[in-house]
Amino acid sequence: PLLMAKAAVLTFLPILTWLPSYPVKQYLFSDVVSGLSTGVVQLPQGLAYAMLAAVPPVYGLYSSFYPVLLYTFFGTSRHISVGTFAVISLMIGGVAVREAPDSMFYTLPANGSNISAVLDVEARDAKRVQVAIVLTTMVGIIQIALGLLRFGFVAIYLTEPLVRGFTTAASVHVVISQLKYLLGVKTQRFSGPLSAIYSVKAVFSDITSANITTLILGLACIVFLYGVKDINERFKKKLPVPIPGEIIVVIVSTGVSYGLSLSEGHKVDVVGKIPTGLLPPAAPEFSLLPNLVTDSFAVAIVGFSMGISLAKIFALKHGYSVDGNQELIALGLCNFVSSFFKTFAITCSMSRSLVQESTGGKTQIAGLLASLVVLLVVVAIGFVFQPLPQTALAAIIMVNLLGMFKQFRDIPTLWKTSKIELAIWFVAFVASVLLGLDYGLLVAIAFAILTVIYRTQSPKSAILGHVPGTGMYCDLEEYEEAVEYEGIKIFHSNSSIYFANCDLYVNALKKKTGVNPEHLQAALKARKKQKEKVNYNHASPSKICVKGVTSEIVSNNHLMEEQRNCQSGEVHSVSDSEQSVFLKPPGDVTSIILDWTPVNFIDTVGAKAIKQEYAAVDVQVVIAGCSIGSTWSGLQVWLSTVAVSLEETIPSP
Amino acid sequence: PLLMAKAAVLTFLPILTWLPSYPVKQYLFSDVVSGLSTGVVQLPQGLAYAMLAAVPPVYGLYSSFYPVLLYTFFGTSRHISVGTFAVISLMIGGVAVREAPDSMFYTLPANGSNISAVLDVEARDAKRVQVAIVLTTMVGIIQIALGLLRFGFVAIYLTEPLVRGFTTAASVHVVISQLKYLLGVKTQRFSGPLSAIYSVKAVFSDITSANITTLILGLACIVFLYGVKDINERFKKKLPVPIPGEIIVVIVSTGVSYGLSLSEGHKVDVVGKIPTGLLPPAAPEFSLLPNLVTDSFAVAIVGFSMGISLAKIFALKHGYSVDGNQELIALGLCNFVSSFFKTFAITCSMSRSLVQESTGGKTQIAGLLASLVVLLVVVAIGFVFQPLPQTALAAIIMVNLLGMFKQFRDIPTLWKTSKIELAIWFVAFVASVLLGLDYGLLVAIAFAILTVIYRTQSPKSAILGHVPGTGMYCDLEEYEEAVEYEGIKIFHSNSSIYFANCDLYVNALKKKTGVNPEHLQAALKARKKQKEKVNYNHASPSKICVKGVTSEIVSNNHLMEEQRNCQSGEVHSVSDSEQSVFLKPPGDVTSIILDWTPVNFIDTVGAKAIKQEYAAVDVQVVIAGCSIGSTWSGLQVWLSTVAVSLEETIPSP
């Protein structure tokens, strides 16, 4: 028990497994370089993504410090850089705007004059901060709970095409949301379905009020950042550390803004008040929770899925393994604990993680140092960034997302490899752009899961024949050597049998074997009726209407036709022994063998569909290669009337 | 083309295929008896289910006439009785109450005195009728569209346990909604999540105001109806037609109510005004549509699914076939066209269809006659039923649903056959009772589909061996005779490979074969690092840290451990040729054969998962029995680096 407890502690606090054996001489220098480089990126991203989350910039700094610090202790990935992330921040922003829209905060001036209502920005932002924080607490709780329940696997439902379509859509939303800052236009922020369209419309209908200074500054920042990004990529190998373009933009534009008094002189929107120092912990405003539960699930799952996919890539590259459930707990703790210190939800960011890894980061120590860089700014020189123009932050956000738009290149690739996955990509993208990220994600997941059902509905089915002299049974249409036994049809269909595909299974079975119980059934009824009639008449006991039943009879009303034929005097004489032939299918099929080797499961609906069809027909249906597990024992008993073990007939590979 | 056009007309108007050949002598008498019996049931059910749909009773009569008439022309099932149905009526009622709650219709008396607000029942009912009608129009449009698009298969997503759990929940809702009529208590009707609980609470907190006369009359009706039902079932074979208990209850209770003036003298709630005659057609109030779209889908799909399942059962029993898509179009047309004549949505009712079939109904003519019975009442003697007590209708509804409660017996049956299907039943039941029928259905469908995913996640996997002297490959653990080839592992897993199970597939693969690329990868890195170090030192070129890699090494940090071991001077000397052994897995596995005979599809995520793991490892991975179709050609090309056709090694299947 002591060993187990120790193992549990080590799993829960991975730092205890690696810190004691930390090779200082080898790793420390790399980690310090990497940590400082990452910290320098954390800072401007924190400020910028706070705008996306619809909260004042300083909360982005808090979010770049507490969770990053905590991850050092709980995280198992050595290379990912947790902190603010565009998509998550945008999702939070959407919720914050929905719960605290501008329209809630118009106040009439106290003196009651005819001045129009004024937007109380401070009250609005305070409310949005409350929403973002309590959402983060909930996200943390959900992630911790999922982690403890070993539900790390939920991330697999977010298949790659879905995530890429979704993140591309998120980038579209982000760019649209930043347009107004780039142009210096003051419009409302929208949320909910079609918000993207409303936002674009609002910005462009108000484009005449754009601030030229803001626009020029923003464009200059974009061009500079794009150039730096390009250089960093081109000279990746020659540069010891990537050029920190973002921090340069922040510093230079702050300087320019301060020097030229852009805020006062040119009405350029700036970041504004950044309080120095950290805030004491406080309980989130839990009364806001009821409206946020579903959003919390969306943020929790998207956040984790981003984190784990990146962590896995780095782990594979560097030859270690990450623990999905522990990652979930780690992220959850980061979010939960930090939210008491007024942060919004975080996960790892692709761009920042690449910086951390490429600058030589070896362990979580790099992340720790990055968080300390942010801490330094928060407690010492935060106020310096007050004149920073918002347009510079918009530029940082937009250039960071250019990589995401490269995902449009997935389209031709997926077109070639898989149309279904292309459809998932498209549905995720279109639904997320039009319906918003929350509903879009839900629609995309539902669609992705339905494609699986769809795929199980189109299995390959075949009639098998025996290859003489071997134990092999092969598709008659593909293998010339395969021959059928007389009166026996061996049916193989490459899928499990359950409610969504049992009809298709039975239809394929009927078509391939040529044995259609409905027709046989109809013929049986016709025969019975005639027999009754004959018995009733007592006149011509040996004259019974019999017609050969072939699979050509497919019309709905052949029963009646048959009867009319009988009535018109077209009667045949048969002996009793011949009558029993009547129920026999064409081609004298006496047995159907269902090859169930590929059948992994069957449900009662599927079992009934098969049983029901063949119950009243004089064809023996047997099952071969049944590998359905012991949990299905009840069903197997239930099916036992038709089931025969046939290992001699068909090998179960 | 003429023939095709003719075929299309025949498909669209099935009456043209059977009416010309209608055997009058044989069928007409049975159809008349059956039609009259069914009509006599249609009538009280129409009145009663209108209460469930929250509209005045006469609309139930309209709904028992127009759609029933239309179905004669468009339907392909000869035995189902379309018309009002409890579950659908309740769903409509829920929507009507949600869109037109009591709270919207309180008006203050004009004189402004201190009398409390009065409920304007007439305005409320008019609004509810509008909602029910436009919902029905939309249901019709959706059903027609689905039918034309050949989407009849959507019904298969409503698997049997789901439908049974759902209808049981609906019965619970119905009984709860009727309690107040049975007791004569006047409470509000609730809708939305938890409405069942609110309703029960409201009724019981107001139970002191129960009307004893109403209660006694209701209970008497219940006892009588139950008795009749029991007799009908016991003496099924002896009775020429079942005793029409419902119409007896209606007639007798109307008589009693009229004779004893129950409405005035004892404050028993009665049906009230029933206008005589039909209404001229009118366009539905389309402005109400936007709020009703999702409800329409729910009603359309549930309605169709009830209809088709019953139609299929009768078709199989009587040896004909029904066309799912045409049934969908037929129901859609019934709903759409009738809605212009002020009906609410219909489908077929189990209890009525059984009456129609058991009384000898042969064709749709029986349904036609049943509708004419209702027509007669509507145009001639509808007013007669004005004194009918509501409690009698509540009794009819409740007794009709007793059969539904027998579905609780599914629980022990499903427990024995399938825990997963039991879970579906329970989720459908609990979600539908608690969240209401609309959300409940959605949750249940989502859950049912997830169970399929879950099942694909737990396939049976095995390592196969060759049975000497045969072409068969069998599970090593099950078959003693099977032997492995040296250095080759044949891995078989009974499922397709896609995003939701590829991780599990790869994990099973690693575990069963004992080849874990991560460990090999880590070992490779360690070796490289040491090699670099050695080269850098130029001191001991032949001293390289090498440790045997076994699958026991599972700790996260064995890389570091290894390095520490090296640093502590524990070095081994190996030759170059020995180093290459280093990447080899334990047991000298050189090749892994993936048996893909049961693999019906693979997506790019699954393909990448396999490829990524084994890309950098010195183990050859080959695929055998790959039957993935031509649409996957792109993927197959992409996989071709590892794929080799292995028909000689493993037979397919």
Topology:
Two copies of one chain form a homodimer.
Chain A: H1 2-12, H2 15-18, H3 24-52, H4 57-63, H5 66-74, E1 82-83, H6 86-99, E2 106-107, E3 118-119, H7 121-148, H8 160-183, H9 195-205, H10 212-234, H11 245-259, H12 262-266, H13 293-318, H14 324-339, E4 347-348, H15 350-358, H16 365-381, H17 390-405, H18 410-417, H19 419-435, H20 437-456, E5 461-466, E6 473-475, E7 488-493, H21 502-513, H22 517-537, E8 543-544, H23 558-567, E9 572-573, H24 576-579, E10 591-595, H25 604-614, E11 620-624, H26 633-639
Parallel strand pairs in A: 7-10, 10-11
Antiparallel strand pairs in A: 1-4, 2-3, 5-6, 5-7, 8-9
Main location (chains A, B): membrane
Protein name (chains A, B): STAS domain-containing protein
Membrane topology (chains A, B): Multi-pass membrane protein
